Each structure stands twice: as C-alpha cells, then as structure tokens.
Amino acid sequence: MARVTASVYTSHVPLIGVAMDLGKTHEPYWRPLFAGYEPSRRWFEAHTPDVIFLVTNDHATAFSLDIIPTFAIGAAAEFKPADEGWGPRPVPTVVGQPALAAHIAHSVIQDDFDLTIVNKMEVDHGLTVPLSLLCGQPDAWPCPVIPFLVNVLQYPVPSGRRCFQLGRAIRKAIASYDEPLNVQVWGTGGMSHQLQGPRAGLINKEWDNRFLDRLIDEPAALAQVPHVEYVREAGSEGIELVMWLIARGAMADASGGAKPNVAHRFYHVPASNTAVGHLVLEEQGS
C-alpha cells in the first residue's frame, strides 16, 4: 500500500521564485533565506518521494472570481507553469499522478468532503516556488506532483478544523491505494503578512513561531483557532496557514499514531513583505 512518509511546510512568496530565476540567491538580502533551506534540500535529496501531494492556493490563474471551488484536486497528467503577468516561470512542467489523484478524490468524496476535480489547469507560484526551494532548478522535477487547491482568497474560506479533518481523510485515502508509493504531503502559504490596507506589511514573529510550536506539538488544538485570530494576528493573508493543517492532519499522530520527528525548522523575515516559515516533519521509522 502507499504511505505518507513526511510532511513539508513552507511559504510560497512569489518574489522568492523571481530571485531564483534571476540568479539573485547569493545577494545579501536573499542569502539568509536560501541558506535556511539548504538543510531541507539535502534532506529532500535523501528522501525524494514517489509522489508529492502539494496543498496550495490559486492566485487567479487556474480560477477567476467567477468560479471559486473550496477544495480542488488536480487529476491531469501534467500542469504547465502559469503566466502570472510577466510570463511563465522558467521551470519544468509539473508531471501529475492521475491514478492516485483519482483514487484520493473517490475516497475523500466518499468520506463526505466535496472536491472539485480539475482535469486541465496551469499552476502558479503557489506550487512552483515550494518545489524550487527544495529541488533547486532541475531540468525536470524529481517526482510527480498532485496539486490540491484551497480557497483562501474569497470568503467564506474553510475552517482550520475542516482542513485538519480533510488531512486525515487524505491520509486514509493514500493508505488504501494498492501500490507501494512513498508520498509526502506539503502545506504551503503564509506566514504572517498583509498585502493591502492600513496594516499592509504586518509581520507578527511571536504569533508565527507560536503557530509552529503548536503545529508540531498540539495540531488538533491549533485546528480550533478561528479565522478572526488569523486575520487579527497574522494579517489578511495569514489565513493561508489553514492549508498547513491539511498537511499536518495527514500525519500519523492526527489519527492516533506516533508523533513525527522534526527534521528541520526555519523562520526568516522579511522576504518581500512576508514572514517566511518552513518545517519538515518525518514519520517515525521512515
């Protein structure tokens, strides 16, 4: 059977991708951020999975405000990089895993979570920046990726509790797939940031690090945090952090198993006008 072996959490700041694409990673402003991901790159080289299930949000490239699914799973054979206004990023096309995606969709929907199944779409920085941070700039991504999109742009957005429960259902779905695949579940977005209004530029280091503490040690309790706290403490875009709860819900301890090991933790400000958080959790025995 397939199994979840690790979860990865990271911000997906678009300017990080620009810095990589333009060869600016060694400039003084960017060097500390990319240095913080070096341990994870080495970890990923040693723990490259068969499939990445990557939780992110669309930034008005796959969907517009005309149609906004709460949860959408990419079931296509490939996903090309989107043009977000300055041309597509010079990164490889993402290869999908349609068979596993279809299996997960069937299992999760039968567990009463409504998903939109997407058979054709392009993917933006929310997916390609996390891949670049851990994989560098390869000619091809090292494994297939299943994109999973969450609406965190237009209210109403899903609760942290719902996201955590969905992660548990995704783990169950993966574990029932009858092929011995090593699967990692990634949660992306955040941390504290606000892009507009009187609080534009908000960064809350204390709240962010407390979030990381709780994500590691008490994820079920963290999942009860209401939307208003995310917005008040982490800014209007801080709500992206509910996507991390999907990845956390996919770990064994969320379903009564052993607590994961912390392989790497990193926090840095600023990157553009955003706090960057990063965490790698390994299942015990993986």
Give a description of the structure.
The chain has 286 residues and is an alpha/beta fold. It contains 9 helices and 10 strands. The strands form 2 sheets. The chain has an 8-stranded mixed beta sheet with strand order 6-3-7-2-8-1-10-9, sandwiched between helices. A two-stranded antiparallel ribbon has the order 4-5. Helix 1 packs across helix 4 and helix 3 crosses helix 5. The two termini are 15 Å apart. The mean pLDDT is 97.
Give the SSE layout.
Blueprint: E1 3-10, H1 14-21, H2 31-46, E2 51-56, E3 71-74, E4 78-79, E5 94-95, H3 98-110, E6 116-118, H4 125-135, E7 145-150, H5 160-175, E8 182-188, H6 205-217, H7 219-222, H8 227-234, H9 242-249, E9 261-271, E10 274-282
Parallel strand pairs: 1-8, 2-7, 2-8, 3-6
Antiparallel strand pairs: 1-10, 3-7, 4-5, 9-10
Q: Figure out the total of helices.
A: 9
- Measured by DSSP, the beta-strand proportion falls in 15-25%
Query: Can you list the strand order of the major beta sheet?
Result: 6-3-7-2-8-1-10-9
* Largest sheet entry: 8 strands, mixed
Overall 3D shape? globular
Q: What is the β-strand count?
A: 10
Mean pLDDT, rounded to whole units?
A: 97
Distance between the ends: 15 Å
Q: What is the helix/strand order?
A: EHHEEEEHEHEHEHHHHEE
Helix/strand class: alpha/beta
Radius of gyration: 17 Å
Runs in which pLDDT lies below 50 for 5 or more consecutive residues are none
Oligomer: single chain
Report the helical percentage: 25-40%
